[in-house]
Specification:
By secondary structure, the protein is of the alpha+beta class. The chain has 23 helices and 15 strands. α4 packs antiparallel against α8, α10 runs parallel beside α13 and α20 crosses α21.
């Protein structure tokens, strides 16, 4: 029967489905499926026609939902297959569990991760695998059922997290567990159950030695690793399950054989990228490797160097998108755009090659995050070593030398301690904190490139830098002030200590040198030389007082102590009057203008000063000492800021 002879109802249904089939074919959004119905109503078509379109729309949306569900499941299965592929090379249960714990610790960025298993014979729980642990007692813990955070997880079969272990009363504390946790120095702990069916067989933990909040994604991620660990344990203990898994793999192999060429290409890409990651390759190495596989030119571009519409489309869709004759894959992590991979002049790209470009973009983002994490970790280690030197926590020369060597620093050579601080008035606390972070970041980078150390301290930054040939403490301070100021685009003042030598055998000298650098820093600021750098040697007699363990308070007390005590006891302004008197060229008339008082008041105050300091207080020698004592008193009163 020809189409013209079909019943009218059939022709109506057939024509009603056509626009929705076109929408399905091009992968339109759900909102687009309303357009044919709205258009029919706007054109005044019959109620039957509109009803047919409504029915076709609902059917098309159901089909679209099914397609989207299948795509999502395919993506999930692909991710699980890749993880299983990584674990397939591990031959025994302990190796599998170690790999899971190591990856959990690495991806969550915690100080330690560990896994405990239930011992059905002894009726308790024991540590099976630890990663990052340093305390022997913690590694050998055996816990009674229901004790500690792990006991709460096992009882409820639900994840639990504590921000502060010792303050959390939701679970049963015991002396044994608390002692082990205290030895390890743990504060924040997350535990998720290892389950086979409804049975909890153990707990997977991630913990930090500082307060920390674990978000939902991190809890879910650790739960995924716990599921893998439970599956590995179950597979090792149940031969039947293993055979069943092999059967499933056999069926999967049949599918793989049907697409052998695709799998071989994907495997080649995977091997190349894995090799690059293992040997420490960079993002440009990834681009070069993918260029060979795709037989084209792949480039990594920084944010802002690629057409923004294409990058945002790729980022929003999660897939590579075509832009003219090019393909663009966004390199992103979380909400942060890190760049893009661009395949040049290759408009015809099949789905397999498209996924290859997308996988390369994912590997590139992981490499960039790893480099950033490594840099941040090195900054923390450099800061910790310098903090230990400043606080003289570690007096073992061998250990200090070894820790410094790992950071490419040589503490046995000549060094200078520099105190650096921003000279900027921030509008609010947030801006001030941001400025300090920029200073700390710039100082850390400078320390790394100069084979030195840097740490945040006292609202500024302290650096320990080696003294190069031909350098002096002064030239190093000035150069450091200039480089830090250029990096943060703000004035940075730097005070330097005298050179130090053989710090591994005399670590206590660092703290004294830091104090000396702070004094020089404050002296620069009081002298109006903000943004400059100097050492004690630059201040003449003042520098001699600033350096080392000079008795500054004793000098101030002997010179103007009587005036200081009188002001403190009576609430007078003799010190302020002296400052104004010397600043006004020792003219009482100009002094009264500066202080906004009557000249007789100035005369009376100066007469009181004369009685307190002696009749010769205005002799040239005494004036110099008094002015110096006034400045030192002001310096010591202000202190480091």
């Amino acid at each position: 029967m020809s189409r013209d002879h079909l019943p009218s109802a059939e022709r109506s249904a057939d024509s009603a489905e056509a626009p929705f089939l076109e929408l399905l074919a091009r992968g339109a959004t759900a909102d687009a499926y309303e357009q044919p119905v709205l258009l029919a109503r706007a054109e005044g078509l019959s109620d039957g026609r509109v009803a047919a379109l409504e029915q076709a729309k609902l059917l098309a949306l159901r089909v679209r939902t099914e397609i989207e569900g299948r795509r999502r499941r395919e993506a999930e299965l692909s991710a699980l297959f890749e993880t299983a592929h990584d674990l397939a090379g591990l031959r025994d249960l302990d190796a599998v569990l170690r790999a899971i714990v190591q990856r959990a610790r690495s991806l969550l960025g915690t100080d330690i991760a560990y896994l405990s298993l239930n011992d059905a014979v002894r009726g308790d729980t024991y540590m099976r695998v630890t990663e990052g642990s340093v305390a022997a007692r913690f590694q050998q813990l055996r816990l009674g059922m229901g004790e500690g955070l792990g006991g709460l997880v096992a009882q409820t079969a639900r994840p639990y997290v504590t921000d502060d272990y010792f303050k959390d009363e939701r679970f049963q504390h015991t002396r044994t567990i608390d002692a082990g946790v205290q030895d390890e120095g743990l504060v924040a702990i997350l535990g998720v159950p290892l389950m086979i069916g409804p049975q909890v067989i153990g707990v997977l933990f991630a913990a930090d030695r500082r307060a920390r909040v674990f978000d939902r994604e991190q809890i879910a991620l650790l739960g995924s690793f716990a599921a893998l660990a439970a599956a590995a344990i179950d597979s090792a203990n149940a031969l039947t399950e293993t055979r069943s898994a092999l059967d499933r793999l056999g069926r999967a192999n049949e599918i793989i054989r049907d697409r052998s060429a695709v799998i071989e290409r994907a495997s080649d890409v995977h091997d190349r990228l894995a090799e690059l990651v293992l040997r420490g390759g960079g993002v440009h190495d990834v681009a070069a490797a993918v260029s060979e596989v795709l037989d084209g030119t792949v480039e990594f571009t920084e944010p802002g160097c690629t057409p923004p519409l294409a990058v945002e489309a790729a980022r929003a869709d999660g897939h590579a998108v075509r832009h003219g004759d090019d393909w663009v894959a966004a390199v992103a992590a979380g909400g942060e755009l890190l760049g893009a991979l661009v395949l040049r002049g290759h408009p015809g790209l099949d789905p397999v090659d498209q996924r290859t470009l997308e996988r390369a973009a994912m590997v590139t983002s992981l490499l960039l995050l790893a480099r950033r994490s490594a840099s941040e970790a090195e900054q923390r280690v450099r800061g910790e070593l310098l903090d230990d030197l400043l606080d003289t926590r570690d007096r073992d020369p061998g250990l200090l030398r070894e820790r410094a060597a790992r950071l490419h620093a040589d503490l046995d050579g000549p060094h200078v301690v520099l105190a650096a601080r921003l000279d900027v008035v921030a509008a609010d606390a947030g801006q001030e904190a941001g400025a300090r972070r920029r200073l700390w970041s710039a100082a850390s980078h400078l320390a790394a490139t100069r084979h030195g150390l840097a740490a945040a301290r006292d609202g500024g930054t302290v650096l320990l830098l080696p003294l190069g040939p031909g350098d002096t403490a002064t030239t190093l301070a000035r150069r450091t002030a200039k480089e830090l100021g250029t990096a943060v685009q703000e004035a940075v003042t730097v005070g330097a200590s005298a050179p130090l030598d053989r710090l591994t055998t005399h670590p206590e000298a660092v703290a004294a040198a830091y104090t000396e650098g702070q004094r020089c820093l404050e002296a620069l600021r009081l002298l109006g030389r903000a943004g400059d750098g100097a050492a004690a040697e630059d201040f003449g007699f003042l520098g001699l007082l600033l350096a080392g363990d000079r008795d500054i308070s004793g000098f101030v007390g002997r010179t103007i102590g009587g005036v200081v005590a009188y002001d403190e006891r009576r609430g007078t302004d003799l010190l302020r009057t002296l400052d104004a008197y010397f600043a006004s060229g020792m003219s009482p008339a100009r002094t009264k203008d500066a202080l906004h008082v009557h000249v007789n008041t100035v005369a009376q105050r100066l007469e009181r000063v004369g009685r307190l300091l002696g009749e010769d207080w205005q002799s040239p020698a005494r004036i110099l000492e008094i002015q110096l004592a006034l400045r030192l008193h002001r310096l010591s009163s202000h202190g480091p800021r």
